Amino acid sequence: MALSEVLDQLESVVANASRVPATTRALLNTSELLELIQQLRMTLPQAVRDSEEIVRQREEIISQAAREANRTRAQAEKDRQGRLDQSDVLKEAREKAEETVEEAKRRSNILTDKAGAEAKTLVQDANEYIKNTLYSLEEQISGLLSTVRRGIELLDKKPKSGRR
User: Fold this and answer.
1) Which residue from 134, 127, 111 is spatially nearest to 51, judged by alpha carbons?
2) Dist. CA 77–CA 63, nearest whole Å
3) Structural domain of residue 121, as residue ranges?
């Protein structure tokens, strides 16, 4: 279940709770709230899995660039062996192989930096959203707890009927 769906259900439970007469307070089903909080906890790791997927993709790109560099290097070596007597061709092949390796490294670094930045941003955004959601939930639960305590205090202050 998506994080927003769990939060919508949590909001619905609070909004549809039985109201305490003459107050803005409500009575909540704690087992239902605890179940929704548990669902919220299970949903949060999805953001982490999304970040891990970005890292996995980055590693695949790096691996692909390394394979391409190795293939290019092997091809250059093969070409060199075939043209040992042609020093100009050999020199050119080495330069091309070095350029290709450098280009692959440059592209790999760019992609690694980009994937790392995106993963970091996703994790930061997810953490901020979770923190804000939990603060909001804490405020709501705190308000409900205050209502319950005042209700108990009111009941304790009322004279007991039937006893004189």
Assistant:
1) 127
2) 21
3) 48-128
- Distance between CA atoms of residues 11 and 156, nearest Å: 31
- Quote the number of domains for the chain: 1
Q: Which DSSP symbol is given to 19? A: E
72 closest CA partner among 115, 25, 105, 118: 105
What predicted TM-score, i.e. pTM, was given to this entire model? 0.35
Give the CA angle between residues 127, 47, 122 to the nearest 5°.
60
Query: Over the stretch 95-149, which tens digit does the pLDDT of each residue have?
Result: 899 999 999 999 999 999 988 898 889 889 888 998 898 988 889 999 989 999 9
In a domain, 52, yes or no: yes
Q: Which amino acid is at 8?
A: D
Query: Is residue 112 one of the residues assigned to a domain?
Result: yes
Looking at the chain, the number of H-run helices and the number of E-run strands are: 4, 2
Q: Classify residue 103: in a domain, yes or no.
A: yes
Q: Are the beta carbons of 120 and 54 closer than 8 angstroms?
A: no
Residue 2 near residue 43 (C-beta atoms within 8 A):
yes
